[in-house]
């Protein structure tokens, strides 16, 4: 298992921690991309949105000071919305000049904020769990997943995995504790 400092955000402040940046990119790329697609951006424009957000984050995260009274989610949403607005203005200008061809309408700003909020927490927790899976033995992972996500009793899972109920509880605790540390500051 890879040791993980208390927060991915803290690791991103290091001069260059490729493992932390890779984890952060893996965690957020699908969210920002799918969000861009859902608000009406075409594939290349959604990919540009992701790239523009990460360029901005590369510049500001090393000096970012996380304040527990503030929300990382809102801060990231603000950056993403600003980049989306820039993209939207560029696409609107292209349409006015007749260069954009027929494109579907892009979502209105009010719809965008509601969409972001609806997807953020579900996506980040789900994605983090998938990324962390490789850090645990299969039986530990399954014990946690079966009890926490599928709602099965510890006794049932223990019988299926050849473990004791106590070992199932311990496995669940280890995985969920690691998830909490991994997502510290990312989910408020």
Please render the helix and strand layout as text.
Elements: H1 8-12, H2 18-38, H3 43-60, H4 72-96, H5 109-132, H6 138-149, H7 154-161, H8 165-182
Helix pairs in contact: 2-3, 2-5, 3-4, 6-7, 6-8, 7-8
Task: Using brief descriptors, characterize the structure shown.
mainly alpha; elongated; Rna Polymerase Sigma Factor, Chain: A; 188 residues; Arc Repressor Mutant, subunit A
Overall number of structural domains: 2
Shape estimate: elongated
Give the uncertain stretches in residue-range form. Answer: 1-6
Percent of residues in beta strands: under 5%
Tell me the CATH topology of the largest domain. Answer: Rna Polymerase Sigma Factor, Chain: A
Please write the CATH class name of the largest domain: Mainly Alpha
Distance, first to last CA:
26 Å
Listing every helix as H and every strand as E from the N terminus to the C terminus, the arrangement reads: HHHHHHHH
Structural category is mainly alpha
Q: What is the CATH superfamily classification of the largest domain?
A: RNA polymerase sigma factor, region 2, helix turn helix motif
Number of helices: 8
Descriptive overview:
The protein has 188 residues and is mainly α. It has two domains: 8-135, Orthogonal Bundle (Rna Polymerase Sigma Factor, Chain: A), CATH 1.10.1740; 136-188, Orthogonal Bundle (Arc Repressor Mutant, subunit A), CATH 1.10.10. It is built from eight helices and no strands. It has helices spanning 8-12, 18-38, 43-60, 72-96, 109-132, 138-149, 154-161, 165-182. Helix 2 runs antiparallel to helix 5 (109-132), helix 6 runs antiparallel to helix 7 (154-161) and helix 6 (138-149) crosses helix 8. The longest helix has 25 residues, at 72-96. The radius of gyration is 20 Å and the shape is elongated.
């Amino acid at each position: 298992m890879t040791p993980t400092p208390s927060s991915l955000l803290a690791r991103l402040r290091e001069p260059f921690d490729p493992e932390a940046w890779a984890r952060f990119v893996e965690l957020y790329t699908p969210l920002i991309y799918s969000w861009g697609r859902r608000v009406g951006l075409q594939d290349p424009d959604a990919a540009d949105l992701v790239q523009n957000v990460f360029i901005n984050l590369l510049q500001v995260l090393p000096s970012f000071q996380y304040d527990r009274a503030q929300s990382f989610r809102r801060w990231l949403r603000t950056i993403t919305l600003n980049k989306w607005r820039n993209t939207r203005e560029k696409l609107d200008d292209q349409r006015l000049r007749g260069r954009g061809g027929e494109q579907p309408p892009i979502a209105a700003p009010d719809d965008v904020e509601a969409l972001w909020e609806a997807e953020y927490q579900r996506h980040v927790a789900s994605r983090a769990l998938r990324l962390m899976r490789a850090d645990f033995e299969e039986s530990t992972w399954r014990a946690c997943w079966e009890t926490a996500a599928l709602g099965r009793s510890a006794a049932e899972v223990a019988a299926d995995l050849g473990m004791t109920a106590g070992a199932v509880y311990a496995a669940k605790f280890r995985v969920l504790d690691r998830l909490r540390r991994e997502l510290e500051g990312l989910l408020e």
